[in-house]
Write a structure and sequence with these properties.
It is a single chain. With 351 residues, the chain is α/β, with parallel strands linked by helices. The protein folds into 2 domains: 145 residues, Rossmann fold, CATH 3.40.50; 140 residues, Rossmann fold. The strands form 3 sheets. The chain has a 6-stranded parallel sheet, sandwiched between helices. α4 runs parallel beside α5. It is elongated and about 60 Å long. The termini are far apart.
Length: 351
């Protein structure tokens, strides 16, 4: 009986020691931080993922297929790489062109949002509006490239602050410089024709500026609106019969059909001024143009800030400030127009 009691005491003593040991271990573990699924970096630890090695998914919608917007996209990729984000390593890109079709741009944006991309980019106003509408609903940040008037487009408040979830870059045309150029090239011209799409807010904003400044250079602006690209041949034919020259905007529907308008201007033997260097390279007589690759690079830098955690509304909208003169000496010769002395250092884009 005595032996049995001793055995029971020994068992109880061992159990007590084991219990105290377990309690001590538990207390030490309570001092350690337990990963939480509400913290992305902690969730990554639980899954074994290194947050610094995440591959982002970026969807890009380019509204129309023309060189200016393509340069925006090229610059965007370059800007991201300058910030350490190399395509197919730091991010994958879904790049689509809407062919100047607003409905198609909306479908692309909704598709990107449904896939939960990390960032949606809209190049040109209609694409940016589609991206923003889809991104806002899905809680996905949006950045725009080449939007002339962010307030009219719905991305910026009147006080200059960003709307929630969006930022980007503006491509405000150097219209004063363009009017000075046209006056220098055509001292006797009176009427400038502008073809534009009713669906593009950027075009309406540019025309308002043209009309406000034209009188300072003794010009009258003659506008011709279109509803779709099918209207362009007849509208361009009508316009060239009323004016001394044409000048182009960053209107994507018109630029995508540049050669159609150019053929009408050529048949009427009137100059057609572009809005950037690629248009001059493709047959416009001259332009005070923006550098769209440089604009894309700035947009890429802004996108890097967003990927690194800055809210889009806290990234100020930026604007291309500088323009450069471009000429096409071949077209000038065909039209019998001499190069003004003030533009003797302009870049010649003749092929």
């Amino acid at each position: 009986m005595t032996r049995l009691r001793r055995t029971l005491r020994s068992i109880l003593a061992l159990g007590l020691v084991a219990g105290l040991t377990l309690m001590g271990t538990a207390c030490k573990n309570m001092d350690r931080k337990t990963p939480s699924l509400s913290d992305p970096s902690d969730a990554a630890k639980l899954s074994g993922e290194d947050p610094s090695k995440k591959t982002y998914k970026i969807g890009i919608i380019q509204f129309a297929e023309h060189p200016s917007l393509e340069n925006c996209q090229k610059g965007f990729v370059q800007g991201l790489e300058e910030r350490g984000y190399k395509e197919n390593e730091a991010y994958s890109m879904d790049y689509q062109v809407a062919q100047a079709d607003t409905n198609l741009a909306n479908q692309m944006a909704e598709n990107f949002a449904s896939k939960g991309y990390d960032l949606i980019v809209g190049i040109a106003t209609p694409a940016a509006q589609a991206a923003y509408n889809a991104g806002l609903k899905a809680g996905i940040p949006v950045i725009f490239n080449a939007v002339t008037d962010p307030v009219a487009a719905g991305f910026q408040n009147e006080d200059g602050s960003n709307k929630k979830g969006v930022t980007g870059t503006k491509d405000v045309l150097p219209i004063k410089n363009q009017l000075e150029m046209i006056r220098a090239f055509q001292p006797d011209a009176k009427k400038i024709g502008i073809l534009y799409s009713l669906s593009e807010a950027n075009s309406k904003a540019s025309i308002e500026t043209y009309e406000a400044l034209a009188g300072n250079y003794n010009f009258e602006i003659v506008n011709q609106a279109i509803s779709s690209e099918q209207d362009i041949p007849a509208a361009a034919q009508s316009l060239v019969s009323k004016v001394d020259c044409l000048t182009n905007l960053t209107d994507n529907t018109v630029v995508q059909n540049l050669q159609v308008v150019m053929s009408k201007a050529k048949a009427a033997q009137i100059p057609y001024y572009g809005s950037e260097e690629e248009q001059v390279s493709n047959g416009c007589i001259a332009a005070e143009g923006l550098d769209y690759i440089a604009l894309g690079i700035v947009t890429g830098h802004m996108a890097a800030n967003i990927l690194e955690g800055t809210a889009p509304e806290d990234v100020p909208i930026e604007q291309a400030e500088d323009s450069s003169p471009f000429i096409n000496s071949k077209v000038m010769e065909q039209l019998g127009i001499a190069l003004p002395e003030a533009y003797k250092d302009a870049t010649d884009m003749a092929k």
